[in-house]
Amino acid sequence: MKSLPPIFSLIALLTAGGSAQAQDPVSHGKSLVAEFCASCHAVGVKDKSPHPWAPPFRTLARTNDLDEFPRALEHGITSSHPDMPAIKFSQEEARAVRAYLRAIQQ
């Protein structure tokens, strides 16, 4: 029974750490674009897009209003390009993506 309190402490610590990470929208947005967008787009501050026609995310603010971008993500972004999947994010995910995009703009 003496080993139970450290186990509970470890569980509490892991849970608290997970909550803090989930609350960081920039990190959450980065993981979302890495998962859903990086196969075509450059999603970092220096990388090249795997597909040359795909704009790097660090320059999206030049052609898109990032304040309105979450709305587009929530409604679903589509493209006539056959490789571009239809992507739709929740409100929280869309705001996290915007937070990440703002963090990397050049």
Could you characterize what this model shows?
- The chain is mainly alpha-helical and 106 residues long.
- The protein contains four helices and no strands.
- The longest helix is centred in the N-terminal third of the chain and has 19 residues, at 4-22.
- The N and C termini lie far apart (56 Å).
Topology:
Blueprint: H1 4-22, H2 25-36, H3 69-75, H4 91-104
Short description:
The protein contains four helices and no strands.
User: Secondary-structure element order, as H and E?
Assistant: HHHH
Number of strands: 0
Envelope shape = globular
Oligomer: single chain
Our count of helices gives 4
Our Rg estimate from Cα atoms comes to 18 Å
Helix content: 40-55%
Instruction: Indicate the proportion of strand residues.
Output: under 5%
Main beta sheet strand tally, sense and closure: none
Which regions have little confidence, pLDDT < 50, spanning 5+ residues?
3-21
Structural class: mainly alpha
How far apart are the first and last residues' alpha carbons, in Å? 56 Å
> On the 0-100 scale, what is the average pLDDT?
83
